[in-house]
Amino acid sequence: MATKAAGVALALATCALATATSGAIGRVANRDGASPAPAAPLAIAGGALLRRRFRTREAAFARIFEPGARACADRGLKLGIAALGAKLSLREIGETATAAAPAIAATVTTGLAATPALRRAASERFGPASGLTRKVGALLAAGTSVCGVTAIGGLAPAIGASQREIGVAVANVAAYGTLGMLAYPWAAKRLFPEGGVPAGVFLGLSVHDTAQVVGAGMTFRDAFEDEMAFKAATVTKLTRNLTLALAIPYLAYAFRSADAGAGAAAKRPALVPGFLIAFVAMAALRSLGDATESVRDDARWKRFHKATGDFASNVVLPTSMAAVGLCMSASALSGVGVAPFVVGACAATSVGVVAACSVKALDAAGAFRGIGAS
């Protein structure tokens, strides 16, 4: 326990530093608390840099810190994803989610289907040394199409991905998600000059991480004085996150099917991981609590689900991401090359294009007319 405590403490300290850095960058950028450099990717980078700092004492680092860091990266991710369900409720999804559902389905399906295909094509082009394993393709598909590092963290234990594979996928999502967060608000204004719900739905579909979507939405709001777009982006992203409950079992099932002839002794991941069931259960509890809120005269329920969701997204998940970085050895990404990043760029582009086209079509059909996002 003492050995694990050292690794957990180091992950917490790295997370605290990343959170403080993210907040400082946000204040300098004047984003009203939404930083253009989210804490999660900073935590991963900080963990990896700290591990690299100890490269001359690799054995000592592994003995003292790695057991706790690995436990934090595994169990912490599962706990954080389960608690993240408290951020979702049917009440918050509302009209915007219903109208955006076809675009959400088209975008997520494109990411889940196109990314593995792109991975196969690139693997044939660059060869086995490219590091484009099937697991990397699946992690990129989940991260690009659903909810960034959260989806990667959720899928990784279900398919038995290595820290190296997780690191490659997270680096892609962090890079292209941040680029999208900075560029897509201006693209949204060009695509949807009237702004409002269509622009927000586009941002909620095309940017990877929830924190990055919030940053993009706030950028659009502040640049074009459009509060509705910001609200629509947030609701759309939370609804898109709910597809995590379908995407992870689908990708886990794909691996079970592909490995069907691997032999009876091979260990296979659970088709529906326990933490995913907990995630759905937490979302259901949130919906039930909201539905019965009118019979109560105190604010304890709101404080509870807000504290639970904030604890997951602001503490548990960033700490787990820091632990992932700490688990990456100095040579974890050596020899990876550009191939995974080519796949990541193509996947992000395909998701963005489908998001723009599907939202355009829905807007032309009047699907968003009269909607007031909540």
What does this structure look like?
- 77% of the residues lie in helices and 0% in strands.
- The protein is mostly helical.
- Helix 2 runs parallel beside helix 13 (300-326), helix 6 (134-159) crosses helix 7 (163-191) and helix 8 packs antiparallel against helix 9 (210-224).
- The protein starts with a helix and ends in a 10-residue tail after the last helix.
* Unreliable stretches covering 5 or more consecutive residues: 261-269
Order of helices and strands: HHHHHHHHHHHHHH
Query: What is the tally of beta strands?
Result: 0
- How many structural domains does the protein architecture include? 1
Mean pLDDT rating: 80
In one word, what is the shape?
A: globular
| Largest sheet features | none
Q: From the helix content, strand content and strand pairing, which structural class follows? A: mainly alpha
Q: Number of helical segments?
A: 14
| Rg | 20 Å
Specify the helix fraction band: over 70%
Distance between the termini: 46 Å
What would the keywords be for this entry?
374 residues, mainly alpha, 14 helices, globular
Quick overview of this protein structure:
The protein is mostly helical. The protein has one domain (2-259, 271-329, 347-364). Helices cover 77% and strands 0% of the residues.
Q: Secondary structure elements and their pairing?
A:
Blueprint: H1 2-28, H2 39-53, H3 58-64, H4 66-84, H5 90-126, H6 134-159, H7 163-191, H8 196-206, H9 210-224, H10 227-242, H11 244-258, H12 274-291, H13 300-326, H14 339-364
Helix pairs in contact: 1-2, 1-4, 1-13, 2-13, 4-6, 4-12, 4-13, 5-6, 5-8, 5-10, 5-14, 6-7, 6-11, 6-14, 7-8, 7-9, 7-14, 8-9, 8-10, 8-14, 9-10
Main location: membrane
Keywords: Cell membrane, Membrane, Signal, Transmembrane, Transmembrane helix
Family: Belongs to the UPF0324 family.
